[in-house]
Amino acid sequence: MSDFQGFGLVKPILRALKSAGYTHPTPIQDQAITPLMEHKDLLGIAQTGTGKTAAFALPTLHLLATGGKKALRREPRGLILAPTRELAGQIAGSIHAYSEDLPLRSMVAVGGVSIRPQMQKLNRGVHILVATPGRLLDLMKQGHASLRSVQIFILDEADRMLDMGFIHDVKKIAAQLPDRRQTALFSATMPKNVKLLADKLLTKPVLAEVTPPATTVEKIEQQVLFVPQNKKMQLLIEMLGDKKIQRALIFARTKYGANRVSEKITKTGINADAIHGNKSQNARQKALDKFRTGSIRVLVATDIAARGIDVEGITHVINFDLPNEPENYVHRIGRTARAGRQGVAISFCQANERHYLKNIEKVIRQTIPVSKNHPYHEEQPVKNEANNKKSPALENNKVK
Ligand code: AMP
User: Is the minimum distance from the CB of 53 to ligand 1 under 6 angstroms?
Assistant: First the structure.
C-alpha cells in the first residue's frame, strides 16, 4: 500500500489528511481515488468503516478545487446523496474537515430541521451539496436547488437507499442531472435492484470492491446466545453488569422495542438512550453525541436509525433481536471492531428467530459459535416449526 502522496492530490488535502492522522489509504481508497481523479465513473462495493467516505470525498474535492470555478447560486457542482440524515451529516463533516484549506464551500441539506437556512446557503452558492433525497427534492421543487451544473454525482449506500424506499426519489433526482457528468455509486451489497440502478446511472464504471461480507466480520468475535424471549431483558441487564462492555450498541427490530429496551436499562441505573425514526432529528443527534462522548454507555437503535453511525470505540454490538434481513447483521456488527480494533458481537436468539440465524450464517458463510455460558440457555431446538431443517447452528446446540 502506498501513502497518499502518490495520488497527486492537491497540497491542502494532503495537509488535512496529515492532521486527521491518516498515513496510508485504506483498500477502497487505494482502488477508488485514482479512477475518480481520472474522471471515470465508479462502482464501489464497500461498507461503512472501510474509509469509503474519503474514497469519494478526496477526489471530488480535488477535482472541484483544481477546476477553479466559483460556486454558483443554487447550482452545486458536486452532489452527494445519502440515505439518512446521520450519514449525510457525517459525510458533510468529513468534507468540511478535508477542505478546510480549500476555496470550496459545502453544505448539508437534510429533513427534520428547518429548510430556510438551507435555502439561504444554496442561494449564496456552494460547490458541494450533501443531501438526503426527500429534502433535496423539496429544495428543487421550491426553486432553491438546480442540478444542471453538477459535474460529480455520488450516490452513497445505494442498497440502503433502496431498502428505505427512495428509488423513485433517486430516479427523479438522477433525471435532473446533466448527461455529461461523473458518477460514483457506493453500496455495501449488490442485490439485483442496486445492480439495475448502477447500470442506469454509470457509464463504463471502474469496479472497486473490498471485503465482501464473509471477510469483513473476521475481526469480530461473534457469539449467539439461545434464550427464550421472556428472558432476553434479564439476560441483557445481567450482561451489562460486566464492565468490559464499555460502549455497547444494541439493536432492536422495532422502534417500540428500542424504546422499551432503553427504558428498562435506564431503570437499572445504566445510562442509555434510544434512536429510531420516531425521534426528532435533534433528539437523535443528542443521543448520538452523548454516546460518542461517553456520557451514555448504551445506545439502543433500530437498523435504519443506526445506518451510517460512525462512533469510535464501540466495544460490543448486541443484537437484542436478530435482524430479519441477513445483510443487516453484517451492517450491525460492522459498527464494532473499527479501525483495526477488536470487537464483540453478541446475538440473542429466541426459538422463532432461529431461521433468521440460519440465513445470516449462509450470508456470512460462517457458523456463529453458540455460547451456553449464561443462566437462560434454551437447549431445545424449535419444535413444531415448519421447515425446521438442521442448520449448523442447531447442530452446535446439541447436547454433547
Ligand atoms: P467510513 O467508512 O468512510 O465511514 O470511514 C470509517 C472511519 O475510518 C472514519 O472514522 C474515518 O475517519 C477513518 N478513516 C478513513 N480513511 C482513513 C485512513 N486512510 N486512515 C485512517 N483512518 C481512516
Answer: yes
**Overall pTM surpassing 0.85 (yes/no):** no
- Which residue from 52, 45, 29 is spatially nearest to 205, judged by alpha carbons? 45
**Does ligand 1 lie within 6 Å of residue 339's CB atom?**
yes
How far separated are the first and last CA of the chain, in Å rounded? 47
Rounded CA separation 145/104 (Å): 18
Q: Are 75 and 126 in contact (CB under 8 A)?
A: no
Which is higher by pLDDT, 362 or 205?
205
d(CA 54, CA 26): 9
Kindly state the helix (H) or strand (E) to which residue 316 belongs, with its residue range.
Answer: strand 316-319
Model confidence band, residue 168 (pLDDT cutoffs 50, 70, 90): very high
The DSSP symbol for 80 reads: E
Burial classification of residue 290, based on how many CB atoms lie within 10 Å of its CB (0-12 exposed, 13-18 middle, 19 or more buried):
middle
Give residue-wise pLDDT tens across range 112-140. Answer: 999 999 999 999 999 999 999 999 999 99
**Whose CA is closest to 307, among 160, 189, 191?**
160
C-alpha 210/C-alpha 294 separation (Å) is 31
Out of 18, 53, 288, 292, mutate this one to test ligand 1's pocket (max ligand atoms within 8 Å of CB): namely 53
Axis-axis angle for helices 354-364, 326-333 (nearest 10): 70
To the nearest whole number, what is the mean pLDDT of the chain?
89
Which cell goes with 151? Answer: 459535474
pLDDT at 214 over 90: no
Q: Is 308 in the pocket of ligand 1 (CB under 6 A)?
A: no
- Cα–Cα distance, 209 to 45 (Å, whole number): 5
The cell numbers describing 138, all together, are: 423539496
